[in-house]
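Inverse folding, one chain.
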């Protein structure tokens, strides 16, 4: 994420404030770069101030809510639900990806206000971790939609998650790791103490735009197409099924798709516009550049909030998962009552006490 003081109007790969993208670096200090060709300098102090207020507040909320929800999902699936289906495995991996993504948010919140204080290597690692888990999370959503489609339209398998399921999970993680290589290579701490990508000038804008398009394709377009096709066929199959309660499953499918579109589509539209602008230099107006910077901050934050909604959409809506939650809650409540009963026994009193079921010698 980055924050800059000035951006040239002519090179529309202007460095955006507090974004994890890599198409706004031309304004970095570079003795070989000729700034004399530009007519004006765009001052973005108000964009910087907006980032200092908006990003820490929003990222803190997302971190707290997402950490609580995804931690519950991981705890239930890892320690209580031993017989897991393929969907359970995908949801577990999705929750892990969301947790690892959320762990990076406090670093970016501090970066928005005080700059990057953890050094160049942590800048690279944190940026790569962000990309790995953001992309893998989108891919696991696609895996869940495929498995649900298969369970409704085909004969469901009675066996649990087998080796093919774990192989798919490994492939998803590997693809996300490969896509994070640009972060490991190009992210660094600039002269303003911001963690930001800096591309060598000889690579030009084509590499930055290509990486951006690849992120859009793997992180949004492919998962969206898979989810759209699978859930559309699943909904049509449910409608044609006689003698079943269709309203709730259809509402769940519709909610999942709508939430995905609302949270992810605006961010990827802005990313696409920035990638096109990096090639064709379409934005030559300072006000438009500022609006683009603010748009990427807001839309990316909304996209991140999807990590907080995943536990509700994919775990808490399931009857099986809710049953495990109730069992854990009852077990914890019983343990608390036993502890309270034990603590109420006056061990230091010489008088007789009433026997309780929670105290034994």
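Residues assigned per position:
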């Amino acid at each position: 994420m980055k924050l800059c003081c000035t951006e040239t109007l002519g090179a529309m790969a202007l460095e955006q404030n507090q974004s994890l993208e890599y198409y706004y670096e031309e304004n970095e200090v570079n003795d070989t770069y000729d700034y004399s060709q530009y007519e004006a300098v765009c001052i973005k102090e108000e964009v910087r101030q907006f980032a200092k207020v908006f990003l820490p507040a929003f990222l803190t909320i997302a971190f707290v809510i997402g950490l609580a929800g995804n931690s519950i999902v991981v705890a239930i699936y890892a320690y209580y639900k031993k017989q897991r289906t393929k969907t359970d495995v995908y949801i577990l991996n999705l929750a892990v990806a969301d947790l690892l993504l959320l762990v990076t948010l406090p670093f970016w919140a501090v970066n928005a206000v005080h700059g990057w204080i953890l050094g160049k290597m942590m800048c690279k690692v944190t940026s790569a971790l962000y990309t790995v888990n953001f992309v893998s999370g989108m891919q696991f959503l696609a895996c869940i939609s495929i498995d649900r489609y298969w369970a409704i339209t085909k004969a469901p398998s009675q066996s649990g998650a087998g080796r093919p399921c774990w192989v798919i999970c490994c492939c998803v993680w590997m693809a996300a790791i490969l896509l994070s290589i640009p972060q490991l290579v190009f992210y660094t701490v600039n002269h303003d103490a911001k963690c930001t990508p800096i591309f060598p000038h000889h690579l030009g804008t084509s590499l930055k735009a290509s990486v951006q398009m690849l992120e859009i394709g793997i992180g949004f377009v492919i998962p969206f197409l898979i989810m759209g096709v699978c859930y559309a066929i699943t909904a049509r199959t449910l409608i044609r099924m006689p003698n079943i309660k269709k309203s709730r499953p259809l509402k769940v499918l519709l909610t999942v798709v709508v939430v995905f579109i609302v949270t992810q589509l605006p961010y990827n539209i802005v990313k696409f516009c920035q990638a096109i602008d990096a090639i064709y230099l379409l934005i030559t107006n300072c006000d438009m550049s500022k609006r683009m910077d603010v748009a990427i901050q807001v839309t990316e934050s909304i996209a991140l909030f999807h990590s907080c909604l995943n536990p509700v959409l994919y775990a808490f809506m399931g009857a099986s998962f809710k049953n495990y939650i109730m069992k854990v809650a009852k077990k914890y409540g019983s343990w608390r009552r036993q502890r309270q009963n034990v603590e109420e026994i006056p061990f230091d009193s010489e008088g007789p006490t009433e026997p309780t079921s929670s105290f034994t010698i």
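Residues 2-39, 342-361 have pLDDT under 50 and may be disordered. The chain is about 70% helix and 5% strand.
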